[in-house]
């Protein structure tokens, strides 16, 4: 079984920065892709960014140029560096790693989420 744990959320002023972490734990053989999603109150969960096993990254248009996703394959951890934060970035951020276990079964896990609040 594989599970993910997010951390790094908090309260920050507009224009500030935060770095979120997503650590995957369990019997992991490989992590093929890690997605970040976010959900604001009253809104549907939406895609933020993704990174492949080879390091290729994709971003939602709303965060391009402000957010950077990276990964540490040794630690099975993905980071989301967020700069120039705006009030509309306020949401619960979830990570979603996908890959294969040591028994070569596929997994598609979700973390519990970490709250990011951008407010003065």
Note down, in words, how this protein is organized.
The structure is a single chain. The chain is mainly beta. The chain has strands spanning 2-7, 10-12, 18-26, 28-39, 46-52, 57-59, 67-72, 77-82, 91-101, 106-108, 114-118. Helix content is 0%, strand content 59%. The strands form 2 sheets. Strands 2, 4, 5, 6, 9, 10 and 11 form a 7-stranded mixed beta sheet that branches.
What characterizes the major β-sheet?
Answer: 7 strands, mixed
Distance between the termini: 41 Å
Percentage of β-strand residues:
over 45%
Roughly what percent helix?
under 10%
Determine the number of helices (DSSP H or I, runs of at least 4 residues): 0
Gyration radius, to the nearest Å?
Answer: 14 Å
**Mean of pLDDT:** 97
Short description:
The protein has strands at 2-7, 10-12, 18-26, 28-39, 46-52, 57-59, 67-72, 77-82, 91-101, 106-108, 114-118. The chain is an all-beta fold.
Which short descriptors sum up this protein?
single chain, 120 residues, mainly beta, 7-stranded mixed sheet, 4-stranded antiparallel sheet, 0% helix, elongated
């Amino acid at each position: 079984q594989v599970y993910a744990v997010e951390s790094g959320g908090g309260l920050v002023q507009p224009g500030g920065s935060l770095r979120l972490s997503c650590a995957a734990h369990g019997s992991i053989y490989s992590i093929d892709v890690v997605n970040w999603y976010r959900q604001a109150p009253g809104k549907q969960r939406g895609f933020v960014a993704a990174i492949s096993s080879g390091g290729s990254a994709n971003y939602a248009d709303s965060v391009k140029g402000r957010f950077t996703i990276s990964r540490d394959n040794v630690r099975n951890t993905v980071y989301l560096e967020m700069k120039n934060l705006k009030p509309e970035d306020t949401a619960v951020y979830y990570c979603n790693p996908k890959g294969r276990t040591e028994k070569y079964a596929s997994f598609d896990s979700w973390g519990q989420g970490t709250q990011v609040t951008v407010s003065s």
